[in-house]
Amino acid sequence: MKQINIAIVGLGFGAEFIPIYQRHPHANMYAICQRTESKLNAVGDEFGIDVRYTSYDELLADPKVDAVHINSPIPNHAEQTLKALRAGKHVACTVPMATSVEDCMEIVKVCQETGLKYMMMETVVYAREFLFVKELYEKGELGKVQFLKASHQQDMEGWPDYWPGLPPMHYATHCVGPVAGLLRLEAEYVSCFGSGTISEDLVKIHNSPFAVESAHIKFKDSDLSAYVYRSLFDTARQYRESFEVYGSKKSFEWPLIEGEHPVIHTAKKPEPEIPERVETPDYAHLLPEEIQSFTGRGVYDAGEKAHLSFVQGGGHGGSHPHLAHEFISALIEDRDPFPNAAQSANWTSVGILAHESAMQGGKIIQVPDFKNP
């Protein structure tokens, strides 16, 4: 049975994926990499991983590594991705792909030149809610999709390093991904408005004043557009990654409060009967039996190990085993993963360019053609 030697880079959030790869029938959880040696050894000892690196360059020089899964801080994503691709390794990388459109383009070009695979590990497009709506769409139950909408609101106060003052749309893939990903649409241009202000001490870090950024996305070769909005600071809201789809037959709306059930609206019923709360099923059956249990639990389910993104994000909708399985399957089957490099670049660049638009009063900005860089 063919197996892929995986190396995980960054062991905060990254440790979530170690037991998934260890149990996946086509993966060998080969190596881990972390700059802090004490943490590297603690994680390596806990999961029984012998091959350990404090140097990323030394890891990339290891010929046994087939693919790297990058979970480092956002500012490092593009540099580490490009280094890995140029070292002949396939890449999975946590969101976003990069912090500039130019770096997104460069990653796409290197993938085309080398034939190596890249996958941005966007949790929302493998969350149970997205998989549920995708199933409704594919069965024809939504009818013609007419509009898509998504949000990602989060209080980032107290988060470390690069987060304070970050422009909201610079971390937009959790809401851009589902509106583009459901029908596999390509964003063509974007217009975004900023609203409100954050505190002066935060504004000066990135020269980004807005409390909320809201954008309209026009999709290429489609009659559809989408609306997405983001907030990170000084805006009262429980954590929410919402995704809503309006169809001619049925529409899906995210609950307002975490823990409530979403709502399906069905056309042509008596008005009081149109809305109905539904329970989103789990989609573990789509996975190899060995990793099905990870849709309902993770390394960080409880106690002091709880990683803030996992706790606030409600476990990311059970997406982690689906992400790992898609990446491994793409390598085994020699096909592009979803999202591939061009799709990941499109989704990431929408957010980057949306912030540019907001800084220019809502100016329409074209998204580059990443399929033909």
From TrEMBL:
InterPro entries to which the protein is assigned, alphabetical: Gfo/Idh/MocA-like_OxRdtase_N (IPR000683), Gfo/Idh/MocA_Oxidoreductase (IPR052515), NAD(P)-bd_dom_sf (IPR036291)
Gene3D superfamilies xrefs: Dihydrodipicolinate Reductase, domain 2, NAD(P)-binding Rossmann-like Domain
Domain Gfo/Idh/MocA-like oxidoreductase N-terminal: 4-120
Molecular function GO terms recorded: nucleotide binding
Any coiled-coil regions, as ranges: none
Pfam families assigned: GFO_IDH_MocA
Protein name as catalogued: Gfo/Idh/MocA family oxidoreductase
Annotated source species: Salmonirosea aquatica
